[in-house]
């Protein structure tokens, strides 16, 4: 349905150009151990949590580490109990820069991409960082202003 091509990307391009598909998902009843295994097996930083086929949350590596550090038993705690439910999402046609701003403002590193009721993909800060660094490598100055923060990248 969607393809990922990273050649000559620009911050005004659509999220669909960098998002990852297929998306790793687990049922809300999956154990924290299963979440950790899925993250490790796929080499990813977050999984979508689904209930009856619908995205209801996200569990990140940080969530797993936080709950384990608090003494959670990974066999008895579920994805549904630790997932972030205040989902911040993007659409496949949203601009990369808009998705990056949304992630900065929400202080999240992984953004589910939704198309209607479907999970279209995931985009991470790493995906967006690659685009911004690539632009910086080809332009003298790049200014990114998410939420009033001014960042200037210069070639020396």
TrEMBL record:
InterPro entries: CBS_dom (IPR000644), CBS_dom_sf (IPR046342), Diverse_CBS-Domain (IPR051257). It comes from the Bacteria. Keywords: CBS domain. Residues 19-75, 83-140 form the CBS domain. Gene3D superfamilies: CBS-domain. It holds the Pfam family CBS. PROSITE patterns: CBS. This is CBS domain-containing protein. It comes from Nocardioides flavus.
């Amino acid at each position: 349905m969607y393809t990922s091509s990273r050649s000559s990307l620009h911050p005004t391009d659509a999220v669909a150009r960098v998002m990852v598909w297929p998306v790793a998902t687990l049922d809300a009843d999956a154990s924290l151990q299963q979440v950790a295994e899925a993250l490790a097996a796929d080499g990813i930083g977050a999984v979508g949590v689904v209930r009856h086929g619908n995205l209801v949350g996200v569990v990140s590596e940080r969530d797993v580490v936080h709950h384990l550090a608090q003494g959670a038993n990974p066999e008895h705690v579920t994805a549904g109990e630790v997932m972030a439910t205040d989902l911040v999402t993007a659409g496949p046609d949203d601009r990369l820069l808009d998705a990056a701003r949304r992630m900065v403002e929400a202080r999240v590193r992984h953004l589910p991409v939704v198309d209607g009721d479907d999970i279209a993909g995931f985009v991470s800060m790493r995906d967006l960082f690659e685009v911004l660094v690539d632009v910086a490598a080809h332009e003298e100055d790049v200014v990114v202003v998410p939420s009033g923060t001014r960042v200037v990248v210069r070639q020396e």
